[in-house]
Every structure is written in structure tokens, then in C-alpha cells.
Amino acid sequence: MTNQKQKKKKKNYVPSRLNLLFFAVFLLFSALILRLGFVQIVFGEDYRKEVDRTENVTVNTLAPRGKILDRYENVVVDNTPLNAITYTRMQSTTAQEQLEVAKKLSEVITMDTEKIQERDRKDYWILTRPDEAAALITDEDRKKVADGEIEESELYNLQLERITESQIAEITPEEEEVLAIFREFNKGYSLTPQIVKNQDVTAKEFAMVSEMLGDLPGVDITTDFVRDYVYENTLRSIFGKVSTSETGIPSERIDEFLARGYSRNDRIGISQIEAQYENVLQGQKARVRNVTDTAGNLLHQEKVFDGSRGKDLILSIDMEFQQRVEEILTDALLRTKPKPEARYLDRAFVVVMDPKTGEVLSLAGKQIVLEDGKYEVLDNALGTFQEAYEPGSTVKGASVLAGMEHGVVHPNKYYFDTPFYIGSRENFTRKASYVNMGTINELTALERSSNVYMFNIALDIAKANYRPYNPLFIDPNAYDVFRKSFAQFGLGVETGIDLPRESTGVIGTDRSLPGKYLDLSIGQYDNYTTLQLAQYVSTIANGGYRMKPQLVREIREPSQEEGLGAVARGFKPEVLNRLEVTDDQIRRVQEGFIRVYHGTAGTARGSKVKKYKPAGKSGTAESPIFNVIGEDADGNPRYEKIETLNFNLVGYAPYDNPEMAFAIVVPKASTNFSVTGGVTTEIGDAVMEAYFDLKQKRANGQPSLEEQREEEENEEETE
């Protein structure tokens, strides 16, 4: 009996707990239904609007580009801050609303109206004179739209075509200023700030606009930045250009930069260093999230990223040395150009490198022109790696090492220097050195610059059989073999410098004449840039390692305080290849280069700076030019061939521990074939003098360029 009662109690206990649970669930669901009903009825409209909002992320403020400094941390390219007035158009902003803002803004700032185009005036006229504009559309035009003969959008084009000059003339000078502002408003994209004015914004204009911001929807004030080239034109072409806010991204690169998160009106580097290191120099703009409703009205902004200045570049260039080299070239051109034999001289180039690291210490090019009866010297630094010329005998070191590489020349190899006669006795080509040198080895050949010695090397490499007054056959493949050896020095190939649009030189294509092959061995066929010659001589100076020329040695993080930020990236010396010859073979060529300066018959023995222990190789190349002198009977131009000489020189110092290597090219330097190379020896001496003089002064604590500049500014302020 007792067990039955217990079972009954258990049966009754379980259902009562379930009833409590069901009742609790009922209450919760009831509360939830009531709450959902309340939210839907009372707040439904508000939440619907919230859901309809859209978010757009955009760059909102300008950020300065990174600075560029030389190897001694002198700032060479900086940013100059400018007061700027901007306008940001909302998606819902109408043209009429923009026009009203433009009218108010025109009352407090002045605008340049020269950029206004005829189409701008017509658009403005239609917008400001709607009744007159409507009258330009006829009933017949509207009927065509109704009949489907033309689209309604074409009516606007008809209005533009029918506006007369007298109607355009109705626009007053005051309206022109409004139009100039309105034109700037419409350049940008919605939610993207557009610079309205950043040049010559006065303090008064800046202050008045600041006070009126509440009455000028979309208008704002900010700080803009433009590039400041501290040393004016020095290396300006190498630093490159930055596009303006008006030109923005060039059309041919728009897709590339938009994919990288740029805006269409962003300023970018468009040439040389500014372009090569765009991703480093470009500042990171502040990003703002604009929250708008479906009508495009801005609800609020949220800052996502504060933005930062671009990273800084530390160049390998020594700016003070660069200025001295440019002065040396300028003086040489002005001194030489007035001479009758130098009437075709118009430019000169110097490249100086550290042969051990490949760092470029100077890229100097100058061009001389006649302006208003006076000679003026212009910058042409780009020509150091974009213009190629006949190098002449400067490449004979490469020819000797090519012979050693292919086993046809060994240390103390002798050839007999006597003229070559190619062809029959009745019709032959004579090829010779400037003087018959007799039996000579490779050291004398380099010291005295023997052409015939190099011809013999080239013939042995090609396995050609030369006999005086007989035809000479050269296997066309021999050109490739010889050029492959030259390429190991950087001759005829890209040097690898971190600048765009480098020339690889000019390679001769005619292989039908055997004399062309012989000319290749003495630098009279293929043309090379000054930078290629500097890389070539650096390879000999450092013992056979072709170093990559490097213009940027460090990338630094931006610093908000005085001094430089942390190193973001350092560039280590890069070996591109090693010559396929032995150390002993390279030393023989180095000895020959030393004799060029210090030997009794060396072609640069007239040097005045032998105390610096220079070594190198001079070179004179024939370089014909052709002047138009009239027309023939058929109207085709007639040319006059004029023979000129290029004066070239490559070298390094000191020869027992090279720390600087240089190449000098002076095209079309003379028409006097009895005088060779004097100007390049003088330039080379002056360049070495400048380098070692600066080195000594710095060792003695000479103030840096930056310190000298600050001292001069302080003196001016004191006065």
C-alpha cells in the first residue's frame, strides 16, 4: 500500500514541474511578441532608415610626400606647406546648390579665370539663364523627342550649339570668378575633397573662409603641400616631377592607381625618382568613413586612419660634390665652346661611383645653348643614362680581358702593331693605330692605346685569317661572342640603376663589313651611356665585380620630430656578375690603366693630380654628324658629312685602394683631329681634386651643406 502511494506521488510531481516550465515559456513568448510589435509600430520607420544607410570609405585629407636627402642627410627635396581651400560635394548636392556656394565664396576670395574654357561658359550660361536656355529648344525639337527621333538628352547638346557669342558675352567679370570656383567644384567626385585654391591664398582669405564655413556647405580649409627643390635646378631632372592636383593621375595609368586605392585627382610621381619610389614617397592620407542615407545626404563621419607623411629617401648622391662636378662641367663647356674646332660641341657628362658598393656619388650632365647672343648652360643629367655615344678607346680594357677570357691573350702576349690593309691593292681599307708601335704587349697597348693590338685580339676570337691586301671574312657570330664579353662589364646592357627608362646603348646591326667588327674592339661601332662606362671601369677597379648602380641607399620612416625616423629598408651592395677571368688577368689590365696616367707614353700622362694615384683609360672616337645643306632635283634633302671627335675618359683613384670611379663623355668636342682628349683630362683632374678636397675638409670638421645653409639664413635674419 505504501509503494502505491509513493508511485502516485511521483506521477503527480512531474506534471506540475512541466506546467511551471510551460507557463514560463508562455510568458517569455508573450513578452517577445509584445516587444516586436512595439518596435515595429513605434520605431519601425527609424530602423528602416538605419538599414537604408550606406557607407563609403574615402581619403579625406592631404598628406605630404616623403623627403629626399643626400648621403650626408642634407634635405634636397622638401615640402612647402600652402594654405588651401577645398570643396567636398555630397551625392545629393545639386548644381544649383553648388552655384550658390560658389557665389558666396567668390565674395571672399579671388580666382584666376584664365583656365575657363568655352564649354564651361556655355554650361554656366544655361544654368544661370534657364528661361533663355529653354527658348533655344523649339517645338519641332520637342516633337522629335516625342516621336522618338532623338533622345531627350540630346536637347542639351542642341542648346550648347545654339548659344551665340553675344549671349556668352553677357557673363560679367564677377560671374567669371563665380564660374572659376564652380568649375573647380565640379572636378572632383562626390565625397572626395577637391582643391579649389592653393596658390596665393592670402591670410585674409584663409581667415574669412574659416569664419564662414557654416554658410559654405562642403567648403573647408586645410594645408596643402608642394615640392620644394632646396638646391633649385641641381639634379632636378633626376628627382623627377609630381603631377598637380589639377592633372591628377595620368589617363594611361588611371586603372593601375585606382586599383591601388588612389583617387583620380591624387598627385603622383610621374618621372624619375618621384615615380620610381612612388609607393614609398606617397603619404598615407587620413581615411574617413562617410555614412550617408539613400539620398546621398551625409549623416556623420568616422575617422578610420589619421594618415601619415610619406617615407623619406636617403640618396647615395653627395650633393656638395654634385654641385662641384656641375660647376666643373659648366666651366669646361663655356671655356671650350668658343673655340672654332668646338663649334659642334653642345654637351658633356660625368658619372662618379663608389666602385666597391655601386653607390652613385654624382650624375652630372650639362648642355650649352646660345641664347640672345650669350651661351647658357642647362641641366641634362638624364643624358648620363639615356644618351649613348661612341666610347672610343676607353673600352680597350674590356677588349683585352675578352681576349684573356677566350684564351687568345695571356699576360705578356705580344702582337706586332702595323697597319691593316683589307681588300685588294686597288681597293682597300686601311685600319691602324695613330702611330706604328712595333711589337708590343697588352700593357703597352693600353698605355699607348694601340688599335692594332685590339684588332688582333678580335681576329683571334673570331678565328679569322687576315692577310694584307686580301678580303677578310668574319663569322657573323663573332659579334655576339665579343658583345657577350662586353656585357659582363655592363656595356650594351642595362646597368640596373634604380631609375626608369635607362638606355642600353645603341648596338650596330650591320655585320656585312669586316671593318665594323674590328671597330667594335676599339669602341667605334656600338654606343654606350656614360653610366655604362662608369660601371665598366668600376668593375675593373674593384677586381672584376659588376656592381649594381644604386641611387637610393636607405628608406626611412617619417619622423614628426627633428632628425630622421627609423630605417625602414636599407639597400646592400649588389653584385650582378663576376668577370670570367682570373685575378692575375684583371691585375694586368689594372697595371695597364695605371700606365695610362703614370707611364712615360701614357695617353693621360699630362694629368696634374697624380698625387691621388689615378688609373684609367682615355678614348677618342670619330663621330660624324650630318647637316642638311639643301635639296636635290627631286626635292630630297642633301646632307653634308662633318667629322667630329668624342673625347672620353674613364678612371678611378687611388689605384691601390679605389674609392671613386668616374666616366667622362664629351660628344662632338672637336673637329681638329690633331688634338685629342685634353678637355677630358682636365675635367677628370678637376673631378678627382673636388672629391679628395671635400674628403679632406670633412675629415677636418668642415660644416655640412645643411649647417652652412642654416648659418647663412641666420646671418640674413640678423641683418
What does this structure look like?
There is one protein chain. The protein is of the alpha+beta class and 719 residues long. Helices cover 38% and strands 21% of the residues. The chain contains 25 helices and 26 strands. The strands form eight sheets. Strands 2, 3, 4, 5, 8, 19 and 20 form a seven-stranded mixed beta sheet that branches. A six-stranded antiparallel beta sheet has the order 11-10-9-26-25-22. Helix 19 crosses helix 21. About 2% of the residues have low confidence.
Short overview:
38% of the residues lie in helices and 21% in strands.
Unreliable parts: 7-11, 55-60
Annotation field: number of helices: 25
Q: Quick one: biggest sheet? A: 7 strands, mixed
Kindly, what is the distance between the CA atoms of the first and last residues, rounded to a whole number of angstroms? Answer: 123 Å
Helix content: 25-40%
Rounded Rg: 38 Å
Overall 3D shape = elongated
Q: How many individual β-strands?
A: 26
Q: What class would the helix/strand composition place it in? A: alpha+beta
> What average pLDDT do the residues reach?
88
Percentage of residues in DSSP E strands: 15-25%
